Amino acid sequence: MANAPVQRMSQLMAKTLRDDPADAEVLSHKLLVRAGYVRRTAAGIWSWLPLGKKVLANVERVVREEMDAIGAQEVLLPAILPREPYETTGRWEEYGPELFRLQDRKGGDYLLGPTHEEIFTLLVKDQASSYKDLPVILYQIQSKYRDEARPRAGILRGREFLMKDSYSFDLDDEGLTRSYGLHRQAYQRIFERLGLDYRICAATAGAMGGSKSEEFLAPAEAGEDTFADCPNCDFAANTEAISYEVKPVDGSAVPAAEDIPTPDTPTIETLAASLGVPASATLKNLLVKVDGEIVAVGVPGDREVDLGKVEAHFAPAAVELVTAEDFVGRPDLVRGYVGPQGLEKVRYIADPRVAPGTSWITGANKADTHAKNVVAGRDFEVDAYVDVVVVDEGDPCPKCGTGLRLDRAIEIGHIFQLGRKYADALKLDVLGQQGKPVRVTMGSYGVGVSRAVAALAEQTADDKGLCWPQEIAPADVHVVAAGKALQTELALDVSAKLAAAGVRVLVDDRAGVSPGVKFTDSELIGVPQILVAGRRSAEGIVELKDRRTGEREEVTVDEAIARLT
Ligand code: ATP
Ligand code: MG
Ligand code: MG
Ligand code: MG
């Protein structure tokens, strides 16, 4: 067996800290900083110190092995990218303020890649010419850049972060389904090997576009996603991906879209006019009152249909626009959250007359909207930095109707069937078997490599500190020299022997640091096995301790080495 390294803490470029960093809100942030794994360089921008880099590299290795196992080929594309292809697909604009844009000295526009669909599409366009070149799966493990609005959770949400992104290219839908399935399996193996508890949930495609998509969510308090889980069937979905239709409470069925009588001009503007209020685009998240009760209608992106339903079910005369006063002192009606720009989103609780889990929307408190002059905190509850929840605990499962359970989770991976969105925009064809060009169909797949480190810390840490599974830990054994020269000598000797047998060792050989501090640090750092050279070193007896269970045992040096190798 090859010699494994011995990392001496006396030389380690990292200091452990007694106190949590002042700005840390989540456990992984606190512990990774205190244990000397990472250091903040700027908001959402992190440096990885030796122990952290080892853990990160271990996650990378697992990801790489499982990607290679499905036949994916590793490449490395640039992180700084030209504007043009993103302009062609529309994402230069669509990505909004999250995109880091920059210029070179000649005034040329560039961006720092948030995800690389465009560039991979162009690479394949350049390299593949015939159906014989497909299918192909390409991947990279690379820093990604997103100017996140709230980089608050340490490594969990960086503005620079490490992602494994891969892209599949197939000739037909069947091929895409196969490539997607391969990724799904690879991701299951990756997260199982990492020791992460996770669920596969239906998801929305977001900025990526495309049709089918699933997320791998790791349940954790610190998570910023909420997933709904059905206790009765296999339904599991990010609450972002669940929407309910507006249904009247009298139990009458929602008419099919074609059965809804179309008002003369079925627009928000028409309704606004009939209500005697100025028509404006800000009315698109419309809230109305029916018989004095607030009913939310007008789901964003579905304007006409919803209006049709309103007019079909409620006599227009009974419909009245909600005003700011309706919310004053009514925390039961609204919940919002506050971000750096002030109040950012408001959720309106559905009217009780509407069947549970039916109609709610998010609205905005910008100038001139229906809810202006409402003060967050005074007039309704504010959940600072909490995402808008559109589905409540106990709402009916879309599959079987059972009450859903809701949990917080961290998104650790996301797989998408993109279809031909990018191939169409960038004209990616290959010559098909019949000699005619065939438009390629694509998938894109991401694992948050650096986020997985933090997610693992969240799920495995205990009240003493980090507590890594062996495959991911920065070392297999943490050897502690608890005493003076004799103990240090024994600790270094044992370390060398373990290393010769291929065991990765971190040895605390620091002079002038008390055994108590060393014990606390060993628990904070979280290597799975701890070997202490202490009081009985002269007799050749050491203590073996299991970091997770806390179980300890005194054994001879030879016995300890035998057990750890
Ligand atoms: P989120 O919803 O958390 O913002 P996302 O849906 O925007 O993530 P994707 O575009 O699906 O992210 O990217 C693929 C993966 O990259 C995610 O599943 C996540 O694990 C990781 N990731 C995304 N944004 C970040 C970030 N800011 N910091 C660390 N990891 C991230
Ligand atoms: Mg995001
Ligand atoms: Mg997401
Ligand atoms: Mg995602």
From TrEMBL:
SUPFAM superfamilies: Class II aaRS ABD-related, Class II aaRS and biotin synthetases, YbaK/ProRS associated domain
Reactions mediated catalytically: tRNA(Pro) + L-proline + ATP = L-prolyl-tRNA(Pro) + AMP + diphosphate
Residue ranges occupied by any Aminoacyl-transfer RNA synthetases class-II family profile domain in the UniProt entry: 54-469
Enzyme class: ligase
Keyword Cytoplasm carried by entry: yes
Keywords tagged on the record: Aminoacyl-tRNA synthetase, ATP-binding, Cytoplasm, Ligase, Nucleotide-binding, Protein biosynthesis
Enzyme Commission code: 6.1.1.15
InterPro entries in alphabetical order: aa-tRNA-synt_IIb, aa-tRNA-synth_II, aa-tRNA-synth_II/BPL/LPL, Anticodon-bd, Anticodon-bd_dom_sf, Pro-tRNA-ligase_IIa, Pro-tRNA-synth_IIa_bac-type, Pro-tRNA-Synthase_IIa_type1
Primary subcellular site in the record, as a coarse category: cytoplasm
UniProt xrefs under CDD domains: ProRS_anticodon_short, ProRS_core_prok
Location in the cell: Cytoplasm
Gene Ontology molecular function: proline-tRNA ligase activity
Function per UniProt: Catalyzes the attachment of proline to tRNA(Pro) in a two-step reaction: proline is first activated by ATP to form Pro-AMP and then transferred to the acceptor end of tRNA(Pro). As ProRS can inadvertently accommodate and process non-cognate amino acids such as alanine and cysteine, to avoid such errors it has two additional distinct editing activities against alanine. One activity is designated as 'pretransfer' editing and involves the tRNA(Pro)-independent hydrolysis of activated Ala-AMP.
PANTHER family: MITOCHONDRIAL RIBOSOME PROTEIN L39/PROLYL-TRNA LIGASE FAMILY MEMBER, PROLINE--TRNA LIGASE
Record remark on domains: Consists of three domains: the N-terminal catalytic domain, the editing domain and the C-terminal anticodon-binding domain.
Assembly information from the UniProt record: Homodimer.
Database matches in NCBIfam families: PRK09194.1, proS_fam_II
Annotated family: Belongs to the class-II aminoacyl-tRNA synthetase family. ProS type 1 subfamily.
Protein name (record): Proline--tRNA ligase
Species this chain originates from: Streptomyces hirsutus
